Amino acid sequence: MIAVSLLEEYGGIIKNYKSGDFIFEEGNRPLHYYQIISGEVKMNNYNDEGKEFIQGIFYKNQCFGEPPLFIDQMYPANAVAVIDSEIIIITKDKFLDLLKNNSEISLKIIKNLSQRLYYKSVMAAEISSQDPEHRVLRLIDYSIEQLNFKKEEAGFLINFTRQQIGDLTGLRVETVIRAIKSLEKKGDLKIINRKVYR
Amino acid sequence: MIAVSLLEEYGGIIKNYKSGDFIFEEGNRPLHYYQIISGEVKMNNYNDEGKEFIQGIFYKNQCFGEPPLFIDQMYPANAVAVIDSEIIIITKDKFLDLLKNNSEISLKIIKNLSQRLYYKSVMAAEISSQDPEHRVLRLIDYSIEQLNFKKEEAGFLINFTRQQIGDLTGLRVETVIRAIKSLEKKGDLKIINRKVYR
DNA sequence: TCCATTTTATGACTTAAATCATGAAAAACT
DNA sequence: AGTTTTTCATGATTTAAGTCATAAAATGGA
C-alpha cells in the first residue's frame, strides 16, 4: 500500500510477531496504522460459543485495521499473525499527517477500502442466503481473483484449509468438506491429494 | 455527505424516482455518483431462489454505490427507491475531478467507507455465527446508533418492518417475528401495537 | 525420528430454522 | 368507503446443516 520508506519517514517501526500472536484485540482503542512487511495476518471474531469467524486474511504489503482508526470506534475484531510476520507500525497522528501531506495516498486508501467493502458485500449476500456449495465456490472464486493463489497445471491451488474456508463462510468444517467433495463430483473443482484446485 | 451546491457546480442533476424504481442494477457498470436529497434507498441482492438480502438502507444526505466506482467493478447489488426519492447525480469523471480539487472531501469519503465497512464487519460476524435473537438485537442496536430512529417515551422506535429485519439479517420473517416476541418476553425490547421499541 | 497436533474424512443423529398453511389486523390504493 | 396488499402472528412439519464420534493421513515440533 504505502511505500515503506515513506512510513519510516513518519516514524514507522518494524515489529515481529510469532505465529498466533495478537496484534490487537477486539474492543481495543485504535492507535496505530499497520502494514505487513512479510507474513500473514487474519482478522477474526469469536462468538458466544467460541466459534471463530474470519473477517479477512491479509498478506505482504497490505494494511489492515484502518476503518476504526478513521471513525474513532473500538476494533470490532482481533488481528492475529497466522505465520511469523513483520509489521510496520506508525501512530495514528503521524498517519493522519502523512495522509494530509500526500494527497495521492488518500485515493489509494479509498480504493483499498472500496475493495474490502466490495468483498464484504458479496460475501454478506452469499452467507446470508445461499447454500454451502455456493458459498464455498464464491469464496474460492473471489480469493483467486484477489489473492495471490498460484496457477498450476491442475488449476489454481486454493491455499486455504477446510477449517479456514469454514471460518470465512460461517460453515462447519464437516460441511465444508462435504461441500468440496460434492463440488468435485460435479466437476466444479479438483482434489489432488487433499489439495483443492479450481 | 457532499454539499449539494458543490455537486451542482460539477454538473449535478436531480432525478426523481418513484417507490420501487431501480436506480441501478446488479451487474451494471458504475458511471455515476449518487447522493440522496430526499427519500430512502436500499441496496439489495436476490439469491437463486429469489430471496432478498438487503445490503443497507440509505437516507437523506447519504451517498451510495461508490465502492465499485473507485475499483472499476460492476455493481454487486441493486439500488432501489424504498419511497419516492430525489437523487442528485454526477458523472464519474466529474466526481473524480471534484475529489481532486477538494482534498477535504477525500477524508469524508474515507470516513464514510470506513463506517460502512465497520457495519459490514459487525454484521458479517453476527450473521455467520450467532443465533437469530442475537442477530436481530445487534441490527437494532447498530441501527439506533447509526440511523435517525426517534426516541419516544417507550424507547427508540425501530423503523423497520419484520420483513426488512429479516432481509438485513438473512432470516425469514417468521423467525424474526418469533425472535422479537422472545426478546420482548426477556425484556430486551417492547412491542406496542406491533411497533418495536428499544 | 518420534510424538503431538492439525487436517481431512465419513457415518449416525439431533436440532434449530425454514417451510407451509392459515388468518387477523393494518396500511395503502382506487 | 371499500378493496387489495402488506404486515404481523401462530401452529405443524420438514430438512439441511450442525453436532458427535471416530479414525487415518499429514504436518510440525522437540
Automatic annotation (TrEMBL), chains A, B:
<dbReference type="Pfam" id="PF00027">
    <property type="entry name" value="cNMP_binding"/>
</dbReference>
<protein>
    <submittedName>
        <fullName>Cyclic nucleotide-binding protein</fullName>
    </submittedName>
</protein>
<feature type="domain" description="HTH crp-type">
    <location>
        <begin position="130"/>
        <end position="198"/>
    </location>
</feature>
<dbReference type="InterPro" id="IPR036390">
    <property type="entry name" value="WH_DNA-bd_sf"/>
</dbReference>
<dbReference type="Pfam" id="PF13545">
    <property type="entry name" value="HTH_Crp_2"/>
</dbReference>
<dbReference type="InterPro" id="IPR018490">
    <property type="entry name" value="cNMP-bd_dom_sf"/>
</dbReference>
<dbReference type="GO" id="GO:0003700">
    <property type="term" value="F:DNA-binding transcription factor activity"/>
</dbReference>
<feature type="domain" description="Cyclic nucleotide-binding">
    <location>
        <begin position="15"/>
        <end position="116"/>
    </location>
</feature>
<dbReference type="InterPro" id="IPR014710">
    <property type="entry name" value="RmlC-like_jellyroll"/>
</dbReference>
<keyword id="KW-0804">Transcription</keyword>
<dbReference type="GO" id="GO:0005829">
    <property type="term" value="C:cytosol"/>
</dbReference>
<dbReference type="GO" id="GO:0003677">
    <property type="term" value="F:DNA binding"/>
</dbReference>
<dbReference type="InterPro" id="IPR012318">
    <property type="entry name" value="HTH_CRP"/>
</dbReference>
<dbReference type="InterPro" id="IPR000595">
    <property type="entry name" value="cNMP-bd_dom"/>
</dbReference>
<keyword id="KW-0805">Transcription regulation</keyword>
<dbReference type="InterPro" id="IPR050397">
    <property type="entry name" value="Env_Response_Regulators"/>
</dbReference>
<keyword id="KW-0238">DNA-binding</keyword>
